[in-house]
Design brief:
The chain has 201 residues and is mainly beta. It has one domain. It has three helices and 15 strands. It has a 15-stranded mixed sheet that branches. The longest helix is centred in the N-terminal third of the chain and has 11 residues. The C terminus is likely disordered.
Amino acid sequence: MRTVPSCAAICSLSFAAIAAADVYVFDNAITYGAFCNDAGVVRQSQDLTQLASGSYQSLTGGAGEFAWNLAAPSGVYLDSLGTARTQVNSEKLSLTFASTNVFAVGGFFFNVNSSGGTQSGVMRIKLSDGTSFIRTVSNNTTFSGFVSDGANITSVEVSHAGSLGSQYFVATNGFNIGIVPAPGAAALVGLAGLMARRRRA
C-alpha cells in the first residue's frame, strides 16, 4: 500500500495485499480525484438522497459497471438526509460491487449516534484484497479514498477500530466508484512507475 503525501492517517496492510498490488490511500478528495484522472479512472458519484428513507435488508444502486450493494448483518437504515448506517451499532457496513473493473473507491465514512449526529472515533476501512486503513473520523465530510494499480476492488468493509467507537453506528452519506474499462485496466499496473517518474521530474 502506498500512502499519498497528503494522507496523514495511520495505515496498515496485510501480507496478502503486498503480493497482490499497490493500493494508494487518500484522505483528501481533491488529491484522490486528480490521481484518478491521471490514471484514466472513470468515476461516478452515488447519491443516497435519491433513495427513499427507511429500513432495508440492504441498499442497491448504480447501474452496469457502477452497480453496488450496501449491507449489514441486521440491515441498513437510511435517514431522510441520505445517510445510511448499520441497524446495530457493533456491526460492520459492507459495500460490494458487481463489476470486476472497479479499481477506485472514495467516499465519506463516519460514525453517527442514534439521532443521526456525527461522532468522532477511530475507523477501520478494509478492502477486498486485505488492505486496511485505520484512521480517525470526526464528521460526515471525513474522506477516504483508494486506488489499486493491480487487483480490482470487489468490496469495502467499514467498522469500528477500538472499543470507544462501538457505541455509535458506522455510516456513509455518499461515495464514488471508479472503473477502468477493459483493456485499459491493464495499464494501471504501470501506474506506480509513472507516478514515481513524475515525482522525480
